[in-house]
Specification:
Layout (H helix, E strand, L loop, with lengths): L5 E9 L2 E2 L7 E3 L6 H26 L5 H4 L2 E8 L7 E3 L2 H10 L14 E3 L8 E3 L40 E3 L7 E6 L8 H4 L5 E10 L9 E7 L13 E5 L4 H10 L9 E6 L20 H8 L8 H8 L5 H11 L4 H9 L5 H7 L7 H7 L6 E4 L10 E7 L2 E2 L9 E2 L1 H10 L19 E7 L14 E4 L6 H16 L8 E7 L9 H10 L4 E6 L21 H7 L1 H10 L3 E7 L3 H17 L3 H13 L3 E6 L1
Parallel strand pairs: 19-20, 19-22, 20-21, 22-23
Antiparallel strand pairs: 1-2, 1-3, 1-4, 5-6, 7-8, 9-13, 10-11, 10-18, 11-15, 12-14, 12-18, 16-17
Helix pairs in contact: 7-8, 13-14, 15-17, 16-17, 17-18
Length: 632
């Protein structure tokens, strides 16, 4: 066969096995224009005739599932001149034997009739996956019956693509080379306890008090936790510092993962991880966050971020362990260049976890090795200290919003953020509401593991006479409560001292529902600790607002709007009085909007152009007088 020839294979699978359509292996010269198109059309027609026929059959047989009557038609085209290094995995027999030599055999691998095209998996060459004809993905899909989903069954989804993607050739990334060997050993003792294995700075502290700061009908639930650190003088923190909270993966999700991998009976086995000999991965190392002598349960509970959104390389690797050809094709699409928008829409933007993805792709059975290679380290979550040691000796406060992920395709029920959901469950019974009697259960609050991260620059000015501006909507106000508590104490201790002006810009949805620390802030204002408290409510009706305005367009909804209104004072403090400006909270929108507004303010007040204003702001950043502590 000439290398300039085309080679194609057409296979149709159905519940009746490989159907009568003969397997075609044809060599044609590339100059036979139109042949490919004609064959494609012919096969397409055959496929749709067959679908119609089988649907009729299905109508008379209520026992048939949509899956079982959907034929799977795949047609692949390969130009050998383009991909000389590639080899063709032709049919199910080849594919099965490949699985047999892989780390595990897919438990639910269905008969696969896909003619796959793959390069040397470790050679790092992007692989072109040809188009599939017949819109198998776009027609009734087996996957849709396997997940509860109330959406339009004909719409594109995680498991289903529509033309043109379902019909297009794909550029999928090269298969990431395997680099770990993983085995499980049945031993007597393995470590199950986080405290003993983690870093030395980790300390276990009791939760002393948990207060819900938002009203029950607020969109977000914000909670203040008071930790008792009196037994830990090493937890020496300053306002502006943050600390890490170590949370485990949810037990139910760990169990689900073990079941999904078929390893539920080996949860107490010791996991042994070593570097694969002769791996082609450059700089490969055994992950440092997987300690020796840990159980499989420990691995999934404390070491791996099992909620992480699978990257495209991971999806690419999962293809190799997926038996069903429709599911393989969809995974290929999701990791391909052509499927980038689908990946963003159905995976990334929904923060879909690997476990959720695996429920939608039931024929995918990855080996444990693959999960260890691709899942990142389970990271502790940082929180800003929301108190001053001077005001609350032996205590450390922090505030968190309970993150909520809504239900979506692949996630039949909504879920909470990992750490915030875990914390909320821990303290739920002992949760108190401001102004209400504390419930007796608060004494029974549990302990958590934390470790201090110091932040050398996000601190109030050391010179007490220097003015400063704080911008912190929502839980972004947390460090500023610490700043102001400290200032309150300093004012009591040094009544003769000169104190610079303090400004706080705060925002929330509703004055009555989620105005965090309202009483404390108003108290600071009354006592002169805080000189200017500027608050905006993004969802309140105008008549409830602090400042009445007639034109709703001019209504300040967000902190940047009230900042703009006070532009003259802002530039005065920053540029004439050498003051400081701090921003804390949401990085995605708020911090950027505040930054843009500062540029506008500088432009207007100094009468300079955009470039000059940006330079001025950059100078403030460099001098560490414009400081950010942002996340999200
Ligand atoms: P995860 O399960 O990790 O999910 C987080 C994902 O949810 C994110 O990837 C994001 O896409 C999405 N998400 C949706 N809403 C939010 C949101 N409001 N915050 C974060 N992610 C969101 N959080 C506080 O509530 N209070 C603090 O004082 C605080 N201080 C921080 C200080 C620093 C230096 C940093 C880096 C972060 C801080 N955070 C704070 C964020 C905090 O560390 C966690 O990211 C947050 O609580 C979510 O954790 P989770 O495990 O519940 O959510």
């Amino acid at each position: 066969m000439s290398v300039s020839s085309f080679y194609f294979i057409a296979v149709i699978s159905s519940p009746y096995g490989l159907v009568s359509l003969p397997r075609l292996e044809v060599v044609v010269d590339p100059w036979l224009e139109g042949l490919w198109k004609a064959i494609k059309e012919a096969l397409s027609k055959m496929a749709s005739d067959r679908i119609a026929l089988l649907k009729e059959d299905a109508g008379s047989s209520s026992k048939e599932t949509p899956d079982s009557y959907t034929p799977n038609v795949q047609l692949n085209l390969l130009s050998l001149s383009d991909q000389q290094d590639c080899h063709i995995v032709r049919a199910s027999a080849d594919t099965d034997s490949k699985y047999a030599t892989a780390d595990s055999i897919p438990a639910s691998a269905t008969q696969t009739a896909i003619s796959d095209l793959s390069c040397d998996p470790t050679a790092g060459i992007p692989v072109s996956v040809p188009q599939t004809i017949a819109t198998a993905n776009a027609s009734i899909s087996a996957l849709d019956t396997q997940t509860e989903y109330a959406g339009d069954p004909q719409a594109a989804s995680l498991s289903r693509s529509l033309p043109p993607l379902s019909e297009s050739s794909l550029n999928v990334p090269a298969l990431p080379p395997p680099y770990l060997d993983v085995s499980l050993q049945d031993v007597d003792t393995v470590e199950q306890n986080i405290g003993r294995l983690n870093n030395e700075s980790l300390i276990e502290v009791p939760i002393h008090r948990a207060v819900q700061l938002t009203r029950g009908d607020s969109v977000k639930t914000a909670v203040l936790l008071e930790l008792d650190i009196s037994a830990h003088p090493e937890m020496f923190f300053e306002p502006g510092d943050s600390f890490d909270v170590f949370c485990p993966n949810r037990a139910t999700e760990v169990e689900a993962m073990l079941h999904r991998l078929g390893l539920q009976d080996k949860r107490n086995h010791r996991v042994h991880v070593s570097l694969k000999k002769e791996t082609k991965k450059k700089g490969a190392q055994v992950p440092s966050y997987i300690p020796q002598n840990i159980s499989l349960l420990y691995l999934f509970t404390w070491c791996l971020e099992i909620r992480s959104v699978p990257k495209k390389a991971f999806l690419r690797a999962l293809v190799e362990h997926t038996g069903d050809s429709v599911q393989r094709r969809r995974l290929q699409e999701l990791c391909s260049k052509q499927g980038a928008a689908d990946y963003n829409l159905h995976v990334r933007d929904l923060s879909l976890s690997v476990l959720e993805l695996l429920t939608v792709f039931p024929s995918c059975s990855p080996p444990l090795r693959l999960l260890i290679e691709h899942l990142p380290k389970l990271q502790p979550r940082p929180y800003s200290a929301a108190s001053s040691r001077l005001k609350h000796p032996g205590k450390l406060h922090f505030v968190f919003n309970v993150v909520e992920f809504p239900a979506c395709y692949g996630r039949p029920a909504g879920k909470r953020g990992l750490c915030t959901g875990w914390l909320f469950d821990l303290i739920n019974r002992g949760l108190v509401f401001p102004g209400k009697a504390e419930c007796s259960d608060s004494l029974a609050l549990p302990t958590i593991h934390v470790s201090l991260r110091s932040n050398c620059s996000f601190r109030p000015p050391s010179d007490l006479s220097v003015p400063f501006i704080m911008i912190g909507p929502g839980t972004g106000v947390a460090p500023f409560i610490g700043f102001l508590q400290q200032r309150e104490k300093e004012r009591q201790e040094k009544p003769e001292a000169v104190f610079g002006e303090t400004w706080l810009f705060f925002g929330c949805r509703h004055r009555d529902r989620d105005y965090l620390f309202r009483e404390e802030l108003e108290g600071f204002l009354c006592s002169g600790v805080l000189n200017h408290l500027k608050v905006c409510f993004s969802r309140d009706e105008p008549e409830q607002e602090e400042e009445q305005v007639t034109a709703s367009a001019a209504r300040p909804r967000y902190v940047q709007h009230i900042l703009l209104r006070n532009g003259r004072y802002v530039t005065d403090i920053l540029l004439k009085q050498s003051g400081y400006l701090y921003v804390c909270g949401d990085a995605k929108n708020m911090a950027k909007d505040v930054n843009d507004t500062l540029i506008e303010i500088i432009k207007a007040e100094l009468r300079v152009d955009q470039f000059e204003a940006m330079k001025t702001l950059a100078g403030l950043r460099e001098e560490k007088r414009y400081l950010q502590d942002i996340w999200g």
